[in-house]
Amino acid sequence: MPAATGSEIALSDLPRIDHHEAMELAEIENARLLDALGELTAEDWSVRTDCAHWDVRAIAVHLIASAQAQANPLEFARQVAAGRRRIKRLDYATHWVDGLNEAQLQARRHLRASELPALWATTSAAALRARRRLPGLIRRLPVLPLGELHGTRLGWQPLGYLFDIGFTRDVWMHRVDIARATGKPLRLTADHDGRLIADIAAEWAIRHNQPVTLHLRGVAGGRYALHGGGELVALDAVQFCRVLSGRAPGEGLLRHALPL
Fold it and tell me: Among the four 192, 223, 234, 238, which has the fewest Cβ within 10 Å?
């Protein structure tokens, strides 16, 4: 257990999610998204979400395309190349990822909403197999030019930043988007969602590196501190992640964003 400051867990001591644990969390999250997709009605797929320009169907297609890229290096390269070409035609784009996402959707316009749950089941399983097998030496290569995302400078990151936990965070955050858009219940547990959020909180705090006391409410929440505490940040745990991702406004230390 990490050291505690009063009743708060010290974020600097919180064990970060390693490769083995990340794969276990990814398997659970993939299954939870599959359950969420299976509960959608025909009308739900066209509901707009917190993601600008995207409805529920677009989110599902994006995640399927992402899983296809994770499972196949050639498909990953094709998507990146297509995204770099398309970004020049997007007036809202601020990062090369925006072009990548749009290219994913355009290449899969033929997919019917009714086939997306089954397609997610097969593609996410293939992606997870590839992620499990990715050698540690490859995961540590600092080859991802993330630059600046949502106002936070990330620079070059190791491949494992995405393949270990980044892709799982993406699925989790979009599961939140789908639940909010459709009004469907969002399944949250302390051991799964709470662990993901704690890891997000640790990265966020260590990146801005300023004293903070963080009280996150809800079943997936917790009480944390960095450098003995400082500014008190208290809000719902899921809302905390929505703020960091730019889906909701934040003040004070919450202006330090994180790509989710």
Answer: 234
Dihedral class, residue 10 (left if φ above 0, else alpha if ψ from -120 to 50, else beta): beta
Give the per-residue pLDDT at 70.
96
The CATH number of whichever domain residue 103 belongs to comes to 1.20.120.450
**Phi/psi at 256 (5° precision):** -80, 110
What dihedral do alpha carbons 120, 162, 152, 56 form, nearest 10°? 0
pLDDT digits (tens, 9 = 90+) for 32-57: 999 999 999 999 999 999 998 899 99
pTM, two decimal places: 0.92
- Model pLDDT, residue 4: 47
Least Cα distance to 56 among 66, 41, 78 occurs for: 41
**Cα dihedral 33/35/36/38 (nearest 10):** 120
Q: What are 37's two structure tokens?
A: 């997709």
DSSP-derived 3-state class of residue 206? helix
Residues 83 and 205 reside in one and the same domain: no
Co-location of 47 and 132 in the same domain: yes
- Check whether residue 63 and residue 152 sit in a common domain: yes
Is there a contact between 47 and 56 (Cβ–Cβ < 8 Å)?
yes
3-state secondary structure of 189: coil
Measured CA angle at 13 (ends 10, 17), to 5 deg = 115
Range of the domain at 10: 4-14+191-255
**Encoded tokens for 164:** 């270990």
Say if CB 62 and CB 54 are below 8 A apart: yes
In a domain, 77, yes or no: yes
Number of domains making up the chain: 2
Tokens of 179: 């639940």
Residues 139 and 214 in one domain: no
